[in-house]
Amino acid sequence: MATLPTSRVCVWDASTLMEPHCKRRKTEEPKDACPWQVVPVLSERELQSVTLMPVYAAPVLDKKQASRLVKEVSALYPLGDYPHLKRVRSCGSVNSSHPLEIILCLAGGKDKQSLQTALELFPDHQLDLSGLGEPFLTQVPVNPPLTRLQYEEAASHWPVTFHENKRISQALSGCLFTAAEKTSMQSHMELAIQAAQNGARQGMKPVGAVVVDPTTGRVLAVGHDCRNGVNPLLHAAMVCIDLVACGQGGGAYDYQDYPSCTFLPLADSSNQTSSCADGLPYICTGYDMYLTREPCTMCAMALVHSRIERVFYGAPSPHGALATNYHIHSCKDLNHHYVVYRGILEDQCRNLSQISVLK
Amino acid sequence: MEAPGRQVVIAEETEAWMERAVNMAKKALENGEVPVGCLMVYNREVIGKGKNEVNKTKNATRHAEMVAIDQVIDWCHQHKKDPEEVFGHSVLYVTVEPCIMCAAALRIMKIPLVVYGCQNERFGGCGSVLDISSPILTDTGEPFQCMAGYRSEEAVEMLKTFYRQENPNAPKSKVRKKECVK
Q1: Whole-Å CA distances, A55 to A84, A113, A329, B167
Q2: Which residue in chain A has the smallest CA separation from B180?
Q3: Chain A: nearest CA to B169, how far in angstroms?
Q4: What does the pLDDT look like over A136-147, one tens digit per residue?
Q5: Residues 6+ apart with CB under 8 A from A60
């Protein structure tokens, strides 16, 4: 079994690479000569466009009654399941005859939404209707917005609250990672590309994978697709998962015929941040995987089972399961989720598929 | 034997194979492993068997089906058979619905038919969480047919028994948010 020569292990040392940065960045980071971009692969919930539902609203004709109306209407028709909806919106337009509009209640989807009067909505003098105009039907967002894009779309229908996820916003604006982090990402993806090329020389599909422990910067495994050997299921990600297992004293396959599939034995990986009671690592918990291309459904689910922390891939695949066909990494029903970024050295990764497999 | 691409499954035989799969799962449970058992049958012969080997290999992808697929590949090499032909005429008998990963693997191997016991509420790839077996996918490989419900009560009971026990190999961390609800 080959092991990684230490010279190829990228030790991530931020202090030597990072410039001291001031507390407030006044300008965007200068576009370094980095020809690739890290793009977060959002979940389906973060990507979906805003869905709307009908509600009854009414103009508030007398501003002095507004706070009383809000209190009393909210008591009668709480919007408990929709805490993101603001009860009142101001009508900024100059030609509006009334300053505010208020949500009265949901317009039940089942019964026909024939317009009801205020008296029908609030029978038996439940509510003092003074200051309230006649109800009208309008559409409001069903779900709280998760991204700024969703927020902007939702707010165009009705005002909503928005608790911005800083990580997502930073990632989307391209300033989540420091230059140093991007450098180490690039070096790991270069290892994966190299493995893919070495595999292709042996007649394998040109796909490479690398597993890194981000807490130490150590490369734990480097592998390539071996499916053109005896086993059609030995995709690059499956190989790499097994190589990590080999490093932990397990593993299911023998890589003697594939010298470019290597792992770091457990003995070499000192100062382990263990995730297990006995001080040993538990499969891929806390690790990052770099893949030259988007994994298929089998591999994406294998990474769920392996408890991977983050996946970085270069180019999308026609049957990929981390954006293209599915979002396996953020599937609500599954018991583990991981973060996915794409676009690392995308052009080089895309060019790998041009390699003609030498037999 | 049978026309290519067509699977003839005789009910009595199905029961006999599932009986063996259930017994394998029982053995796994006795050994403190996830109680899933499976067999791959080709020309009325068992050419691959599998039980979960995750703990043994420290590889979370070593599910019973993956182990059985590897055995069939070995069998093909030993008997100088074309794997494509063998997998294309084999039936998988498994006590629990294959997970998303295994279902995708079965597609890649072009296994035409899977007979299974109970639903896999957590990870199922034949309808429970996603339907990877479905013909509408323009994915790699081929869709496969499923026959579900054989000995499902026993399979569920074994799973429940297993999940009531502690898995000494699991990380101590996360509290499970949702108990396995049936």
Answers
A1: 14, 10, 35, 49
A2: A335
A3: 8
A4: 999 999 999 988
A5: A66, A69, A88, A98, A99, A100, A101, A102, A131, A132, A133
